[in-house]
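User: Sequence recovery, please. Input:
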């Protein structure tokens, strides 16, 4: 029996990169996984991969910035599986569909600022709000929000992204207070820059090499490096832990 056997887990941004790794890792430990992504083809590919390995998965198209789309994702999950035990808010605007602009703060357009905040922060809020009624009814649930190690470094060049990911931590702490009486825990995982094969460009490769040298563990971070932390926060092992931030970046930043 797996650590999250028969639990239902929604993973937003589940079609690519670390989201795909979360979906596969949860499925290996027995979870029934909803691969939710704005890229429906990618979501279906990951769900097919899970089913091909003997797991149970549902692919759902979702735009986390849109309240109706998020409600439809939750409705489809409940119709298929009857419950929601785990939500991983992984969808983010960073390298996809196009990279965020790496410019000084005074060069960030208002339109791009708003788009980053809509995906990275409003999307987390909308997804948490949408799953809360089901979790409250069962008086149990695990919400895991994905932030970034850039919050603790103050990385220059993309102020809007860093700010949005700092907001995720504040949202998590306040929400943990509001949902604790219902048996729902809310925590954060803050990855470092993680290498996904479908996101590699020469500039990204150079950045990975720069970060490798700055870490205590001097290697490039892979999506699989985050799966153990996700499983811990999704499982009963973390039932007495809420409002916390787990930094998983090979020892580049310390909190």
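Assistant: Recovered sequence (255 residues):
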């Amino acid at each position: 029996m797996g650590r999250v056997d028969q639990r239902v887990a929604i993973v937003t941004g589940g079609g690519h990169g670390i989201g795909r790794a979360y979906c596969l890792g949860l499925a290996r430990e027995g979870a029934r996984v909803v691969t939710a992504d704005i890229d429906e083809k990618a979501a279906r590919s990951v769900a097919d991969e899970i089913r091909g390995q003997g797991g149970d998965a549902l692919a759902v198209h979702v735009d986390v910035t849109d309240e109706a789309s998020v409600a439809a994702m939750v409705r489809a999950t409940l119709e298929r599986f009857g419950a929601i035990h785990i939500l991983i808010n992984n969808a983010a605007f960073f390298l996809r569909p196009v990279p965020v602009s790496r410019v000084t703060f005074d060069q960030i357009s208002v339109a791009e600022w708003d788009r980053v905040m809509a995906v990275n922060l409003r999307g987390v809020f909308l997804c948490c709000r949408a799953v809360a009624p089901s979790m409250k009814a069962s008086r149990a649930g695990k919400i895991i929000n994905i932030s970034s190690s850039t919050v603790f470094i103050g990385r220059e060049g993309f102020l809007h992204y860093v700010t949005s990911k700092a907001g995720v931590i504040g949202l998590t702490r306040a929400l943990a207070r509001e949902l604790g009486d219902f048996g729902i825990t809310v925590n954060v995982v803050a990855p470092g820059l993680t290498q996904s094969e479908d996101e590699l460009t020469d500039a990204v490769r150079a950045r990975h090499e720069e970060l490798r040298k700055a870490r205590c563990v001097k290697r490039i971070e892979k999506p699989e490096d985050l799966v153990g932390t996700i499983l811990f926060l999704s499982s009963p092992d973390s039932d007495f832990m809420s409002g916390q931030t787990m930094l998983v970046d090979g020892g580049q930043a310390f909190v």
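The mean pLDDT is 92.
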